[in-house]
Design goal:
Chain B: This is Coenzyme F390 synthetase. The complex is a heterotrimer. Chain A is α/β, with parallel strands linked by helices. Chain A has eight helices and seven strands. The two termini of chain A are about 20 Å apart. By secondary structure, chain C is an alpha/beta fold. Chain C has a seven-stranded mixed beta sheet, with helices on both faces. In chain C, α1 packs parallel to α8, α3 packs antiparallel against α7 and α10 crosses α11. The chains are: A alpha/beta, B alpha/beta, C alpha/beta.
Chain lengths: ~300, ~375, ~500
């Protein structure tokens, strides 16, 4: 399989993938609410989703909006896409704002969080979804003996750095509220490196470890920290290079018999942000159709 | 005033004009009330950072508030501790303050950048409940006021109320009997005697405790001050905080005994410095059949569960919250410290909550505050 | 379940349990009066049906009260007053031993009924009752005696006095207790203090908790029927002067718990010859030094503090209403306040606060409102979202003010707790317990400051509401305050020697 997590391209060259109107960007978030199915405790919540202009981040943001939340839609460069997500969020009965920041920059994250709090008065949920540029191409991946510390270091700095910056920025607010939810989007590659992207997987594993130790400390403040580990998620921009052969291979191995959609991931994220999961922390919830089964 | 404030004022005035004859209970204004209440809420949310923070902590924002009942009411303590004003408070043309009988150092303040809405509310409500055509043909009366006017007490909303009442609805021979810091009972008795001789109906107005003062004087002198036929008695405030309990029935008995006025000619007003409108019993507009209180069409009253602040059904006692569109500058929703119960015709006031007697041996707050004051006094003395 | 035991016992009839709420000496009869019914939910096991329990109050007439007071005085003189202290200790210890048995039926009834009567969380009642009763085991009872008497034998006979001569201590023949109900079972404390000095006892339970004193007195009477006459528990309508007059006229001492006003009202009716001990309202607070906010300590500190605040819904005078938190620890005071808020919320999930009256709820709403709109920089209100279950108000500066209780607390940041506690000075007459979490080197300087401020008890944070045996309640020697000392001066002793015909004096 290829990538577990496909997120907003935080790439400097964000042009790699074409916009796919009507498909990748039209998740069916309304379905949940049209069935009268509302996760408790999300109405009025202030949710910051990083990398929310596209892909999984967008689906998560819109799912929150459909539950009446205020979503801060973070983006790196595509202000137009972020603005469209905010419009859509309002149409779905939520509210929101677009907020630019490069989540790899500590000061930028601090500024973004301050902006969100200034606008919305608080910050209840953070979804660390943004992904630095990574090309999930099984045919062109770097082999183990080609992957040196500089590559791994760059991935750790980007993946782990982003969530550490975010924790640093939001914890004062969440502590002061005596409540908060931090959710990291990681990857099932950590458990099952079907396609071994060494640098990427190592960095995501670091996020999982950090997430657990963070959970241990901040639980006393009423803050939960959890991870969601999707399998190969389509359609997203970043999963594009993962071709049909690998996709079929993943499907054959998956009990549920299909690939993950962004909405599937959003469901797990909403669960962890809802009152239903108030006693769940330090966990990693796999959303991969049963591909990985373990404690 | 910022232009947006002027727009809000205009909308409120238009609403008042449109629904002048209605009351809080009129379903005909449901939709308009809801729309304007939420509009004012959004406006106050935007321009009052203290209130915005309070609402955000409760996840109530213009986006999550879908009906006027969702607007978080501001506890009246806020008027003591903070500045509840959308417009700059220093530009207010009037600042009404609570009497501060319980804590003189901490008085609640309501800033009025303009009195246009306040006075329109007062006049419209007064005409609707106190001077209905059925009870007072012609709409003007000789008014004898036992409490100060606004020349005596410029920061009292009640004083301003009486002044506007006399200016708007009083005949030329109306008088204030509270002058230079004291109530001139003799002058009042003389005036009543003169009115009686002339068979000129009067409306006596005053705070409830002012009547207590007069009754004490009458009792001491062993005389009555019988009002001419057709007269009315208007009181407000009750006796809480003045060292006496006085039930409504007892007040009516006084009026009958000392003023010769029957209960169906007595009206009680319920007002608060923190509001910009007043509520009334419906004695005069229902020929004495309904004593429950209600307000004009731009005020709605909820009875909330004291623990959860969830609205209670009819018949259950809870804390009173008022939603007053005329309070456009301060707070459209106010959480009082009064207990009441909702009835088919409005609500009934049960009383003000005193410092609660704690269940056990831990210090009851009032007791300790008293001790602290005494200690502080010792130090100064 | 209780079975019918005759006159003074539990009368079961047609599935209804009737609990008479009084215990009187044999020979005194009170007529059953009004009844308050309580429905106990079934245990759930085996389809247990709910049990209807009727609490029966007695009719108390002035004549009955006069007879009761006389009977207790007489019985005390004839039995209790003649016991050795060690026998009294044995007696109380035996009763406590029964109560510390989880299978003891009265304890089971107390555990089931007290939560219904008081509104307190059942688990709290169960745990705290056990903890409280452990304070009265034999070894602890001796601690009480030794705390107040250099030689407790003075309660039994004349013993040599420290300044020559001989000393004897006599308890009151009739001690009247006006008990309080804020903490279930605290009535036992008062009863035990009286019995330790062999006082004939008539206790009036609080209206809110009429049960525990009766149950415990019944246990005592069961163990020593010969002493039962010296102990009575009777509820009567507070302030009924016709009933109280014949009682107070015969009392040697009166103990009263309650608000200043309530206690003062009782004081006015106590005749001048009787000793009057009052335990009025008190305020307690907590002091958290930076040492208790180290990375490995802060969570535990907070947990213990929340327990002090929340247990019995803060109705104990020993529960803190104000917390001073020092800057310079690993957790800043503001973060500690947030942590405390989260802890209070968890406590609420685990042991929900009892229902509160409208006035109490509104007092909390008003309390929150006042600080939510405070202009003071940094002031923050943390509060339960949907109700008044708990409230934490954080302040950037030291200060001191009581709260509306029911789990509401002020947290004040300060640079140095030892100086910050000065803020409590205006409340001097009311200060009682202080919970501390502070480095040993600073404990005594702090304790000196607190002592000067008027505080009477310093305990660990987490133990604030559990006073140890021998505690000087509100700073007084509780047992010594109850007794009357009799001195034989050395002159009498010497003179007596002279009157011994066999004595031959070598002097003139």
């Amino acid at each position: 399989m290829s990538n577990g997590t496909v997120h907003d391209k935080m790439a400097h060259e964000a042009t790699e993938m074409a916009h796919e109107p009507g498909m990748a960007h039209e998740p069916t978030v309304q379905s949940a609410t049209s069935q009268g199915f509302m996760a408790p405790g999300l109405r009025g919540k202030v949710v910051l989703v990083t990398g929310a202009s596209r892909g999984i981040g967008r689906a998560v943001a819109l799912a929150f909006a459909a539950h009446g939340a205020f979503v801060a839609v973070n983006y790196l460069s595509r202000a137009d896409l972020a603005a469209a997500v905010v419009d859509e969020a309002r149409r779905l009965g939520g509210d929101g704002m677009a907020v630019q920041a490069d989540v790899r920059q500590r000061h930028a994250v601090a500024r973004m969080v301050a902006e969100v709090v200034a606008a919305a008065g608080r910050i209840d949920v953070v979804v660390n979804n943004a992904l630095t540029n990574y090309r999930f191409d099984p045919k062109q991946r770097q082999l183990a003996w080609e992957t040196g510390w500089p590559q791994v270091e760059a991935q750790v700095a980007a993946s782990l750095g982003a969530v550490v910056h975010m924790a640093e920025a939001v914890l004062p607010y969440m502590q002061a509220q005596a409540s908060g939810r931090i959710i990291h989007i990681v990857s099932n590659l950590v458990d099952f490196p079907l396609v071994p992207y060494h640098d990427y997987t190592a960095a995501k594993a670091a996020v999982v470890g950090y997430s657990r130790s963070l959970a241990a400390e901040v639980g006393r403040f009423g803050i939960t920290v959890n991870c969601v580990a999707p399998g190969l998620t389509v359609p997203t921009d970043a999963s594009r290079p993962t071709k049909e052969d690998v996709r079929e291979q993943v499907i054959r191995l998956t009990p549920m018999g299909r690939l993950v959609t962004p909405d599937d991931v959003a469901g797990a994220v909403l669960f962890l942000a809802s009152d239903w999961a108030r006693m769940v922390t330090g966990q990693c919830l796999r959303v991969d159709g049963g591909l990985v089964m373990r404690d | 005033m910022r232009p947006e404030s002027q727009r809000v004022v205009d909308e409120v005035l238009a609403y008042m004009h449109r629904f002048a004859g209605e009351t809080s209970l009129s379903a005909v204004c449901d939709e308009a009330f809801d729309a304007l209440a939420r509009r004012i809420f959004a406006y106050q949310f935007e321009h009052n950072p203290l209130y915005r923070r309070y609402c955000q902590a409760r996840r109530r924002t213009p986006h999550t508030v879908r009906r006027w009942q969702d607007i978080p009411p501001v506890p009246i303590q806020a008027f003591k501790e903070g500045v509840m004003s959308v417009e700059p408070p220093e530009e207010a043309v009037a600042v009404f303050m609570t009497s501060g009988t319980t804590r003189p150092d901490r008085r609640g303040r309501n800033f009025h950048p303009s009195l246009a809405v306040w006075e329109a509310s007062m006049r419209t409500g007064f005409r609707r409940f106190v001077l209905p055509e059925s009870a007072v043909p012609g709409g003007r009366m000789t008014m004898f006021v036992l409490s100060p006017g606004d020349d005596e007490m410029p920061n009292s909303s009640l004083a301003h109320y009486f002044t506007v009442a006399v200016q708007t609805f009083g005949r030329a021979d109306s008088r204030f009997f509270f002058r230079a810091g004291r109530l001139d009972v003799d002058a009042f008795l003389d005036a009543v005697a003169a009115a009686h001789a002339a068979a000129q109906p009067v409306m006596v107005l005053g705070a409830t405790f002012a009547y207590a003062h007069v009754v004490d004087a009458l009792r001491a002198r062993g005389v009555r001050a019988v009002l001419p036929p057709g007269s009315l008695v208007f009181d407000t405030g009750g006796m809480k905080g003045h060292g006496r309990e006085l039930r409504r029935e007892a007040f009516h008995a006084w009026m009958a005994e000392w003023f010769g006025v029957t209960a169906d000619r007595c009206i009680n007003m319920y007002g608060m410095t923190e509001l910009s409108s007043q509520l009334y019993d419906q004695t005069l507009c229902t020929n004495g059949t309904v004593r429950d209180k209600t307000g004009p069409a731009w005020v709605r009253t909820l009875i909330l569960h004291p623990d959860t602040l969830v609205p209670l059904p009819e018949g259950e006692t809870g804390v009173i919250a008022h939603y007053d569109l005329a309070n456009w500058n301060a707070a459209v929703a106010i959480l009082t410290e009064d207990l009441g119960v909702r009835t088919p015709h409005g609500f009934e006031l049960i009383g003000r909550i005193a410092g609660s007697e704690a269940r056990g041996c831990s210090a009851a707050i009032d007791e300790v505050l008293q001790a602290a004051r005494e200690t502080a006094g010792d130090v100064r003395g | 379940m209780f079975v019918a035991e005759g006159r003074a016992g539990w009368l079961a009839a047609e599935g209804v349990i009737r609990l008479p709420l009084w215990v009187v000496p044999p020979g005194v009869d009170l007529t059953p009066g009004r009844t308050v019914a309580v429905s106990l939910p079934g245990s759930g096991a085996g389809g247990d049906a709910p049990v209807r329990v009727e609490l029966v109050y007695p009719e108390v007439t002035p004549a009955a009260m006069a007879g009761l007071a006389a009977a207790v005085r007489k019985a005390c003189a004839a039995s209790l007053a003649r016991l050795k202290t060690a026998e009294v200790v044995d007696w109380i210890d035996a009763a406590v031993a029964r109560w510390l048995d989880p299978d003891y039926l009265p304890r089971q009834w107390a555990e089931r009924l007290l939560p219904l009567l008081t509104g307190y969380d059942a688990e709290t009642v169960r745990l705290e009752l056990k903890r409280l009763l452990r304070t009265f085991r034999r070894k602890e009872l001796w601690r009480f005696l030794d705390a107040d008497f250099a030689n407790p034998d003075v309660l039994d006979a004349f013993r040599p006095g420290p300044a020559g001569g001989w000393v004897r201590a006599l308890g009151p023949r009739l001690l009247v207790h006006y008990l309080s109900g804020n903490v279930p079972g605290l009535s036992v404390w008062s009863l035990v203090m009286g019995l330790l000095v062999k006082a004939g006892t008539i206790a009036k339970p609080a209206s809110g908790e009429p049960l525990m004193a009766v149950l415990f007195a019944r246990t005592l009477a069961d163990i020593r029927p010969d002493l039962a006459g010296a102990l009575a528990v009777v509820p009567w309508r507070g302030g009924d002067e016709a009933v109280e007059a014949p009682l107070l006229a015969q009392a040697d001492a009166v103990v009263a718990y309650g608000s200043d006003q309530a206690v003062a009202a009782i004081a006015r009716r106590v005749p001048p010859h009787a000793r009057f001990l009052r335990y009025g309202h008190r305020i307690s607070f907590a002091v958290i030094g930076r040492e208790a906010l180290a990375p490995d300590r802060y969570a535990d500190t907070c947990h213990r503090l929340a327990d002090d605040i929340c247990v019995y819904d803060q109705q104990s005078c020993m529960s803190p209403q104000v917390v001073f938190v020092e800057r310079g620890g690993a957790v800043a005071p503001a973060a500690f306040a947030a942590l405390l808020a989260a802890e209070m919320e968890r406590y609420q999930v685990r042991r929900p606060r009892g229902p509160v009256a409208a006035e109490e709820a509104l007092a909390i709403q008003s309390f929150r409102g006042a600080f939510a709109f405070s202009g003071a920089e940094g002031t923050r209100v943390f509060a339960s979202t949907d109700d008044t279950a708990w409230t934490v108000v954080y302040h950037e500066e030291p200060g001191f003010a009581p709260t509306p209780l029911n789990r509401s607390v002020h947290v004040h940041a300060c640079d140095d707790v030892v100086t910050a506690v000065e803020a409590a000075a205006p409340y001097r007459p009311y200060l009682q317990s202080v919970g501390v979490a502070i480095h040993p080197a600073r404990l005594f300087p702090l304790a000196e400051r607190l002592a000067e401020l008027g505080v009477s008890r310093i305990a660990a944070v987490g133990e604030m509401t559990r006073a140890m045996a021998g505690w000087h309640h509100d700073g007084r020697p509780n047992l010594a305050d109850l007794v009357r000392f009799v001195d034989i001066e050395p002159s009498a002793e010497r003179w007596a020697e002279r009157l011994d015909a066999d004595v031959e004096w070598d002097g003139a």
